[in-house]
Amino acid sequence: KPLPFGQLRTNHMFLMNYSEGEWRNPRIVPYGPIPLSPGAMCLHYGQTLFEGVKGFKHDDGEIYTFRADQNAERLNHSADILCMPQIPVDLQLDALHRLIDVERDWCPSMPQSSLYVRPFMFATEDALGVRPSREYIYCIMLSPSGAYYSGGFSKAIRLLVTQKYHRAVSGGTGTSKTGGNYVASLKPAEYAHSFNAAQVLYLSADNSTIEEVGSMNHYHVLKDGTFIIPEFNDTILRSVTSLSVLELGDAGVIKARQEVIRIADFLEGIQNGEIVEAGGFGTAAVVSPVGEYVFEDGSVIKLNDGKVGEHSKKLYELY
After folding, report:
1. What would you measure as the largest C-alpha separation in the chain, in angstroms?
2. CA atoms of 284 and 297, how far apart (whole Å)
3. Tens of pLDDT along 70-85?
4. Band of pLDDT at residue 1, cut at 50, 70 and 90
5. Where are the extended beta strands (E) located within the chain?
6. pTM of the entire structure?
7. Which long-range contacts (CB under 8 A, 24 or more apart) does 168-174 make?
């Protein structure tokens, strides 16, 4: 039976409290409920954020996290946008590694599996005025997980292209990993499922350019093997996986760059054969090939006959 994504829990979690301007009482405790006041500000005004990191068991028996320092820095970026306190990167990494060390026997080693690490922070002050909380909890939990999408890497997914929904607006919280951005994606995802699509491909507010998918950044591949990622702006979450792919491009390992991608040009590129593959990059999804784009009129455009392409496969194996 395949290992599910995000359903299992290990025996322990890390907790730390913030009050009176500083982080206090870092500790590893048994996994379980966290007491919370009904007036906790996270429940009323959405001061929550989270990250996602993966740990992999290597041949030497050790568990290696993938660029967790980048996620720690992004957590602080989200915290700044949400008026939440910063957590020193070294402290985040120390907590993460200590917890993984306690729970190392939980790390799976089967193909397409990992120890998924979920750090998160939320406001706990019992107050009903609309302002930043003065108290917070930071927690890290672990989940032995398989592939994010049920078909794993070997099955290309379908995306819905729609002008009905948009993920974020300029000047908002688009570049933060906050719960509010994800709850806003649930209704569009339900809409996508009605078209047998896994997710929505979000367009810009004026419906002219490609932005991202609900759970990952988007990419496409030109016939010369170049990976193209939409240029980051203040409505796109900067995926650590996307940044890593761009660094591979800078190092000459692959060909990769960013561009502003007009949806009309993208569709034309598929039809004339200039674009041969597409997919998404993300911590949970890793490299997730897209085989079909469906539209609200029911029409479908296929890439690579709806199958996983060779360039995406090589990049996934490199990852």
Report:
1. 61
2. 30
3. 999 999 999 999 999 9
4. confident
5. 12-19, 22-30, 48-50, 53-57, 63-65, 114-123, 136-145, 157-161, 199-203, 210-213, 216-222, 227-230, 256-259, 275-282, 286-295, 300-302
6. 0.94
7. 168/211, 168/235, 168/236, 169/205, 169/235, 170/205, 170/233, 170/234, 170/235, 171/234, 172/234, 172/235, 173/81, 173/82, 174/233, 174/234, 174/235, 174/236, 174/237
Could you tell me how far CA 173 lies from the centroid of its own chain?
Answer: 15
Task: Output the six-digit token pair for 307.
Answer: 């199958």
Beta carbons of 107 and 55 less than 8 angstroms apart? yes
Q: Can you tell me the distance from the alpha carbon of 13 to that of 81, in angstroms, rounded to the nearest whole number?
A: 26
pLDDT tens column, 130-162: 999 999 999 999 999 998 877 677 789 999 999
Terminal-to-terminal C-alpha distance of the chain: 25
pLDDT at 30: 98
Report how far residue 66's alpha carbon sits from residue 53's, in angstroms, rounded to the nearest whole number: 7
CB neighbour list of residue 156: distance below 8 Å, 6 or more residues apart: 279, 289, 290, 291, 292, 303, 304, 306, 307, 308
Q: Report how far apart, in Å, the C-alpha atoms of 191 and of each of 68, 203, 300 are.
A: 33, 15, 16
Residue type, 112: Q
CA distance linking residue 167 with residue 169, whole number of Å: 7
| Single-letter residue type at 303 | L
pLDDT of residue 319: 65
Q: Strand 227-230 to strand 256-259: parallel, antiparallel, or no bridges (unpaired)?
A: parallel
Average pLDDT of the segment spanning 110-116: 92
The per-residue b/e assignment along 63-88, b for 16 or more CB within 10 angstroms, e otherwise, is bebbbbebbbebbbbbbebbebbebe
Token pair for residue 184? 């806003």
Residue 109 or residue 23, greater confidence: 23
